[in-house]
Amino acid sequence: YRRLHAGGSRLSGFNQTERKAMLGSYTKVLFVRDPFHRLIATFLQGMGITPSFSSFVQEVLDSGMHNGSVAWKPLVSLCRPCLIQYDYVVKFGFLRQELGHLLRRAGLPAGSLLPELTDSQVQWTYRWLSEQMFSELSAQQRKQLSHFYRWDLAAFPLSSSFLSD
Fold it and tell me: What GO biological process terms are annotated to this protein in UniProt (predicted)?
């Protein structure tokens, strides 16, 4: 297909046959992170211009699905899991275990290539941060965030997310 090699083409611009041909020879991996954790990380990295997490969340909600930053847009809108059949979905918090498996499947020595990942410490830290940040939000903001990320919560196994409640 001539269009397959054209720069700047979006995957959604191709028909199903073209997508299948283009992606068929690749191993497709999707890295998934709790959307609330993504918001916290974005806020802590200083991408929000407001001084409080609650104000930052309000900015995110006001920006909407289509005008927001990729840092906080729902993953479903970015990675198109309905268009792409991913071979692996790797959940943040299980990176060391999952990446080792992926490297072994690719025939690579898993142990020597992996950085030191402390998944349990990361999970504990985000759990604590989530509790602190979630308590800053109004009931209305919590409800709106759950609605904003509803497709991510439905598509990926994120039952421990504060937004799943």
Answer: carbohydrate biosynthetic process; dermatan sulfate proteoglycan metabolic process
Q: Tell me how far apart the alpha carbons of residues 161 and 165 are, in angstroms, rounded to a whole number.
A: 8
110-148: b (≥16 Cβ within 10 Å) or e: eeeeeeeeeeeeeeeebeebbeebbeebeeebbebbbeb
**Interval 62-112: pLDDT, tens:** 988 778 888 889 888 888 777 778 888 888 766 667 777 887 887 877 665
Quick one: tokens of 162?
Answer: 């504060």
CA torsion sign for 55, 57, 58, 64 is positive
Both tokens assigned to 119:
């998944």
CA 39 to chain centre: 10
Domain boundaries, the chain: 11-155
Three-state secondary structure call for residue 135: helix
First to last CA, the chain: 46
